[in-house]
Amino acid sequence: MKMVATDARPRRSVLYMPAANERALEKAKTLPADAIIFDLEDAVAPDAKAQARPNAVAAASSGDYGDRELTIRCNGLDTPWGADDIIAAATSGAAAVVIPKVGSVGYLDQVSALLDQGGGPAALTIWAMIETPTAVFDVRAIAAHARVSVLVMGTNDLARELRSAHDAADRHPLLPHLAVSLAAAREAGIAILDGVYNDVKNLDGFRAECLQGFEMGFDGKTLIHPGQVDIANEVWAPSDAQVDQARKVIAAFEQGLTEGRGVITVDGRMIEHLHVVNARRTLAVADAIAALADSGN
């Protein structure tokens, strides 16, 4: 049976933190990110990987990060460190392992077997990174894998492999691939995270890309700098007006059913069951964000 992530869990801001940098790991405890990826891959130099692994495991098992969702990005299985990373992460207490350059179901099966070999619990899932043409072609099967709970767009690597301009305005070279991956995640009933924004000083550009990702339907965004957290949290949080409207839609629909009305309208617009489903999700997300805030994160 597929282990689908909790639908309303906030993943507005998912921050990569280099596991070799102990100061960064300490700082992450104070940041309002919904989730942390303790990174053993791109953010860690080869000569620092040996120390980064126990740092990531210690951080994930420490209990010092409140209710944030904690994950560990492992190196690929084609590297000297990948298998050991996955086995070490299995009993770290992390919610998931983030696996780069996933290209097939067979590759995911190898990762899952290593998690089992390391004693990982059944609830430990895989966040599969979609960052190659092969992954885009196989994304439906990847998303449907029993252990995959989240897809993560690796837009930098994907743009490089496609030979497209990854800093193009509106990301138009990548939009077809983002949309296909998003559709695969929705078909499988799992979450999907938008890729990183590289120009950390350009907060207006970052906000615009967040809005684009939100409007497309992504559940949140992966981040490379703490200064991006607040904007991502704001963009992916339902506004007070949206919460009020959701409550109004649900109340009108329920009253209409009680009264046996065939047509239900709110503010002059016809309301159908799909609008109620969306309204209930809005309230669930708002409640989950409020609970995370109340926990001190």
Q: Care to give the gist of this entry?
A:
With 297 residues, the chain is of the alpha/beta class. The chain has helices at residues 22-28, 49-61, 82-90, 105-117, 133-137, 139-144, 155-162, 175-188, 203-216, 229-235, 240-259, 273-294, and strands at residues 13-18, 35-39, 69-73, 96-99, 125-130, 148-153, 191-194, 220-223, 265-266, 269-270.
If you had to describe this structure to a student in words, what would you say it looks like?
The mean pLDDT is 94. The longest helix is centred in the last third of the chain and has 22 residues, at 273-294. This protein has helices at residues 22-28, 49-61, 82-90, 105-117, 133-137, 139-144, 155-162, 175-188, 203-216, 229-235, 240-259, 273-294, and strands at residues 13-18, 35-39, 69-73, 96-99, 125-130, 148-153, 191-194, 220-223, 265-266, 269-270. It is α/β, with parallel strands linked by helices. The chain is built from twelve helices and ten strands. The chain is 46% helix and 15% strand. The protein has two domains: 13-235, Phosphoenolpyruvate-binding domains (TIM Barrel), CATH 3.20.20.60; 240-294, no CATH class. The strands form two sheets. The protein has an eight-stranded parallel β-barrel with strand order 1-2-3-4-5-6-7-8, surrounded by seven helices. A two-stranded antiparallel sheet has the order 9-10. It is globular and about 65 Å long. Helix 3 crosses helix 4 and helix 11 (240-259) crosses helix 12.
